[in-house]
Specification:
homotrimer
């Protein structure tokens, strides 16, 4: 495992060359900021949720991002519809279980999406991941992380092995595992938690990398490094949340492959 | 009444220590900016509207904000559902009757919400408040204020007494009454009217203060001072609407309890 | 035709004096940025989509903007409802067929809206316009323009003549025709394509100008010049997408009638 490595710089270069389409069925709060995140990074966003068209859009997309942030029945239908089609067409799906643990509705929907859509990557904070584990009755307080990333790791490994997926747990220190390999990422900045939708944004970024990197584990790691470094870049230019949100988008565009090669703070190991 | 006073500085300190959850059922236009407003201020936003989960969320929230800006039937159902549950659980509700007076649908919905949900605080512009008064056939032109705040004051007092709530009327000069006390607030800046959702944002800020201050009148006054001062802070840093919107968020975060203590422009009196 | 000219400076002055109401039934992604675009320009936005109220709102609006970006059944119903009412009341309708060509659902909806609502102006990119032409099976890749503006011109002229409307085709060079006159506009900047919703924004701006200028062709040309110049203004102040989006809004507010008179890059001719 000591030889595991992710060539983030090359991946970023490929992403910016291919401008992969990323289809998002996501929440109302972050639709605009997510689309701008993908554009700033170099990808091409599609946001669409109508049952009538999601399959056709999945057919042309490089990745499908499902985000349950402002859930309601018709949107859940669209997510299953699009997700099952993506599974058949082997399009990677990234699931963001926003607020899992906060209500039974969210926990249940996230569990069913994992079961039936089989996402390549599950990206949540520690509370959300804990709520989705076998033991998981852990009540999330809104969408904030209450439990340390450390506590969520065992759950992440279990989920990864049970569903043969990559689990990406974000927090002060990020953690990624596919049940076999694991990575700890220490890029990022505390101000990111003061801007709405940064979690959802890194999920969309994960979709963009998954569209160009078939190894889901590597795509997830690259995304966390990239977004975390944009957060660091922004912190050097802004100190308050409004201008920080603007600088975060700028950073996604300003960072060059060489920058991420030099600035990545990743540590790999084998999952126990 | 000369002794009435609101210790805004202390309230702001408490708010930033407790990070109260504020549950918003609000319009599509301002979901992102409202969430960012609450985060910048120091509160924690939840945006959710599904019938299936609003009660569970009300159970964990410090305040519920209802905003009828982009109304439709399922959202009205969710507002009544969440609102009635909040009433039972004694969670303060803040209602923003966006565009009341502009269409019968909005006026009617706002009236029914007041009647059945019994909000602690109603926050609108002069046109909207006038449209909700007993005489109120006053047609609002969109969501702009056509009538001076002065004209809306009598209606505010009547509404406050009839429904035992606080009414918060914003405009060039803001006015708050609970039917017994009244306050005039002269913080703010004309550029606030050039950014969409500033009215909705101050309603959400009112929810955040209501979560930490049980006296609804005081919570409403503190909110108008705080948001108005953020508007003043922003006007010193930006002169056009795009960068002004960014600076407004920055100001909510940058202002310290001591700043609001010094900058508050409030005048209290007894309602006639 | 050599004498055709649009007095954009005067139109902008009139717009800023009248603050025309523009009613938008638009997509979730751009609701906030569209409202801010209209406010920065000097117009007054209304966003509302409920069947119960769209007719009442059309009655007080200066223009109706329909945008199919995040389509679903209830929104289509609202668009037809509002659009047919606008047709009867002679309120100009501007249609943005976002993603036409990408799915049958979008292409079909856009075609039916053109047929039954008879928009004064159709504003799309080259792919979208091509997809709506008589021959149009041209598959759009998401909402990006794949085909050059040149290729879409013949389709634009055909559509303009068939439906007696103005067609506004945006891209590196913009093109407007009413089937008789045509204009080429070379204002704008490549960074505009890195911000989500700039196409939707220029459609809303077109609505604002259509509210004050009865000649749809002239309103469309003025809008493209104005928005393109805001893009140029922004490019002098920001180099990355996040801050560029902010500067774009600033530019809409900062540009004065004299600036657009001097900076307009328009060339008129007769359509063949």
């Amino acid at each position: 495992m000591a030889t595991e490595t992710v060539d983030i710089a090359t991946l970023l270069g490929v992403l910016r060359e291919r401008h992969p389409l990323v289809h998002n069925i996501t929440n109302y709060v972050v639709m605009n900021s997510t689309a701008n995140t993908l554009l700033a990074l170099g990808a091409s966003p599609i946001m669409a949720h109508a049952i009538e068209e999601v399959e056709e859009l999945v057919d042309i997309t490089g990745a499908l991002v499902l985000n349950i942030g402002t859930l309601s029945k018709p949107w859940i239908d669209a997510m299953f519809h699009a997700g099952k089609h993506a599974l058949i067409k082997r399009i990677p799906v990234v699931l963001d279980p926003v607020g899992a643990g906060a209500t039974r509705f969210r926990t249940q929907t996230a569990r069913e999406l994992i079961q039936h859509v089989r996402p390549a990557i599950l990206r949540g904070n520690a509370s959300e991941i804990l709520a989705l584990g076998p033991e998981g009755a852990g009540g999330a307080r809104g969408v904030d992380a209450q439990h340390g990333v450390a506590l969520a790791r065992q759950t992440a490994v279990t989920l990864a092995r049970t569903f043969n997926m990559t689990v990406s747990v974000t927090g002060p220190e990020d953690y990624v595992t596919d049940g076999r390999r694991e990575a700890r990422i220490r890029n990022g900045h505390p101000l990111m938690a003061r801007v709405t939708g940064t979690g959802c944004a890194v999920t969309a970024v994960t979709g963009a990398f998954a569209a160009v990197e078939p190894d889901a584990f590597r795509a997830a790691v690259a995304s966390l490094v990239m977004y975390g470094m944009a957060g660091e870049w922004a912190a050097q230019r802004a100190q308050y949340p409004g201008s920080y949100a603007v600088a975060l988008l700028d950073g996604l565009s300003a960072l060059m492959p060489d920058d991420v090669r030099k600035g990545a703070k990743v540590e790999f190991s084998a999952a126990e």
